[in-house]
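@channel sequence for tomorrow's demo:
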Amino acid sequence: MKKVALVTGGVGGIGTAICKRLARDGHFVVANYAIPGTESRWQQAMATASLNGDSTGLAFGDVTDFEAMGEMVRKIEKDHGTVQILVNCAGITRDSTFRKMTPDQWRAVLATNLDSVFNVTRHVIDGMVERGWGRVINISSVNAVRGQFGQTNYAAAKAGILGFTKSLAQEVVKKGVTVNAISPGYVQTEMVMAIREDVRQQIVSQIPAGRLAMPEEVADAVAFLASDNAAYITGTNLSVNGGLHMYS
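structure tokens (generated this afternoon):
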């Protein structure tokens, strides 16, 4: 049965790959975005993959705003149906060593990467519980479990997602709702490819797999956790990092 899937930050590199995969699996996918104009490349990508039209939709809204997310979810429900799969993928970086980090850099990353998970999930979880089926999949990061120089804000936010995941999973598992996290390592997105080549090669040299992840590999993990085959998996953190960090 076709299910409605909402992907926050769905127009980014990883978000677009997730949207494509879930749409190919037969779901109706709604990609959230917050910056006008950023949706055009997503629309082109989905059209090129023949996944536009009846397979996908867009939802504008700032994930840091609780009330705006409520309005967005209600509009999705009115236009497309209740959200049964939620992928919390929205995220930003504002890197700086802690001694130079400003309150604005801290707050921006915590609001977008962590507060957003509450702001969106809170508006869909009751419906999932009432229907007796739901999937919440939160995109964390390898740096949530190993830390990263210059990313105290980002690592703190992504680590918070892991605690959120394990706690909410316990509350809703008996209602047929699973809550899981995925922690990607370095993924071949525009942001990573914009890193100076010698620095990027240094990063790759530390990855046992010897390469960056492709966005589609993260999307494959999302698709599995969203499926009925993962009904007995909840509260887990699935690492997709090529062996960069093997402890969680």
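heads up for whoever presents: The longest strand covers residues 177-184.
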